[in-house]
Amino acid sequence: MRKGSEPGGWRPPRVEAVREGSPCRGAVKEGDLLLDIGGRRPLDVLDVMDMGEQSRVRLRLRRGRREIARVIRKPCGYPLSIVFDEAVFDGVRRCSNRCVFCFVDQMPPGLRASLYLKDDDYRLSFLYGNFITLNNLTPQDEERIIRMRISPLYVSLHTTDPALRCEIMGGKAEKGLRLLRGLLQAGLEIHLQVVVCPGLNDGAELRRTFRQVMEEYGTAASLAVVPVGLTRFSERLPRALRPHDPATAAAVLDAVGEFQGKALENLGSRLFYAADEFYLLAGRELPGEEEYEGYPQLENGVGMVRKLVREISREARKSVQCEPVRGVLTGTLAEAVLRQALESAGCPGVELVPVRNRLMGETVTVSGLMAGKDVISALLEARPSPKELLLPENALRDGRFIDDLTPREVEEATGYRIVPCPVDGGALLGMLCGRGGADA
Questions:
Q1: Which residues of the chain have pLDDT under 50?
Q2: Which residues are CB-contacts of 84 (< 8 A; sequence separation ≥ 6)?
Q3: What count of other Cβ atoms lies within 10 Å of the Cβ of residue 19?
Q4: DSSP label at 237?
Q5: pLDDT score at 297
Q6: pLDDT at position 321, please?
Q7: 160 CB contacts (<8 Å, ≥6 apart)?
Q8: C-alpha to C-alpha distance for 98 and 366, rounded to whole angstroms
Q9: Beta strand pairing status for 131-132 and 56-63?
Q10: Can you tell me the distance from the alpha carbon of 289 to that of 79, in angstroms, rounded to the nearest whole number?
């Protein structure tokens, strides 16, 4: 979010680029501020897309200290193709819920400010796949979403019981259930998630949620169940929660399997999916690729490991066998599965360096939350033989770890070269054997 921008506080968006082939090339320049389109202030890039549909579009811009007007003529429906510095211009809508498991409330102090931002903005859900609650939508928001067909949207459900949803979210969360039904009835694509907390919304409550989803929200595109994430700072939460163990993970998988079968029979889709972490924690085999039905919630950790294993196997079948020349940094939970996949692909002997998460606590096991200092500790303790190690690129954002260290700073502290690698099995296998990534 632009510095100084608050909810309700509009700021003119800055043009970062004008794409090749844009009808605005020559008329709009990088650094221009967009003041209005046809006399109306756009609130976000969705407004820009909507307002820019016509064959004649009048833009008012600020260039330096001057205000200028430009009329863009183009085929009706042809996009303006302007890239702005932000997606929303009136401030990100903040989350007003007080969820009992809020991950942001469990963040350690001293990290970059963006990690503490709690958003609940339907526009970011559409643009980036952020999960929202729908609890803060106004009637105007609902009308706009339906009118502009803003979907897919990603909604945190957690339970279909209005009272329990209010208890979990700490507010009037039953409103979101009503709005969810309205958006689904309007034919929008909605993906749901349930963060499962042992003793709160698991067991009979989870089965009741599944049952009601099939009965009342059956046109949803998918529902993912994910385990509650608890850091070593979880004592800050408003109530005591406990992490999942193999028994609770197995119980969740049993419920998912039961209702997948019912949904497949009644709705023609499995609908319900469990995060990879449940399978790894319970020690159960991952479902086959076809059971993920196109991976509708891959970014939510559903099917990512299966996809990676499949890609490794596919790459191994079409590539000549080679000796690994690099090692791999990995989260602790996926280490065993990754090792088995590489051995099955004819690439044994790869040095895997599991990174224990000391920053947030060792119950946090995913690679996307690795801290640079923890990577340094892991390398200095393991002292792997390869001097280059692959790092899942989802551990970096804007080239930095979650604790704001850069790969270069890790390299300077350890003497090991860090090579970011796409979360893709084919790329992983190729880069392990020295194909690609030399200048990463």
A1: 1-7, 438-440
A2: 13, 14, 15, 16, 34, 45, 48
A3: 12
A4: S
A5: 97
A6: 67
A7: 177, 208, 209, 212, 213, 216, 217
A8: 24
A9: unpaired
A10: 37
Range 306-432 classified under CATH 3.40.50: yes
In degrees and rounded to multiples of 5, residue 165 shows phi and psi of: -65, -40
Contact between 118 and 95 (Cβ < 8 Å): yes
Q: Is this structure's pTM higher than 0.85?
A: yes
Give CATH for domain 104-302: 3.80.30
Question: Which residues have CB under 8 Å from 291's CB, separation 6+?
Answer: 260, 270
Question: CA–CA separation, 260 vs 269, rounded Å?
Answer: 8
Whose tokens are 């990995």? That residue is: 330
Cα(43)–Cα(324) distance, integer angstroms: 51
Omega cis (within 30) before 152: yes
| pLDDT for res 113 | 77
Closest by alpha carbon to 158, among 125, 120, 132, 196?
Answer: 196
Residues of the chain with CATH 3.40.50: 306-432
Q: Collect all residues with Cβ–Cβ distance below 8 Å to 27 and sequence separation of at least 6.
A: 59, 70, 72
CA distance 258 to 207: 9
pLDDT attached to residue 437: 57
The answer to whether 395 and 364 are in contact (CB under 8 A) is: no
**262 DSSP 8-state letter:** H
Q: Is residue 43 within 8 Å of residue 88, measured between CB atoms?
A: yes
Segment 115-153, tens digit of pLDDT? 888 999 999 999 999 999 999 999 999 999 999 999 999
R_g (Cα) of the chain, nearest Å? 24
Q: Which pLDDT does position 408 carry in this prediction? A: 96
CATH superfamily of 15-84: PDZ domain (2.30.42.10)
CATH 3.80.30 in the chain, residues?
A: 104-302
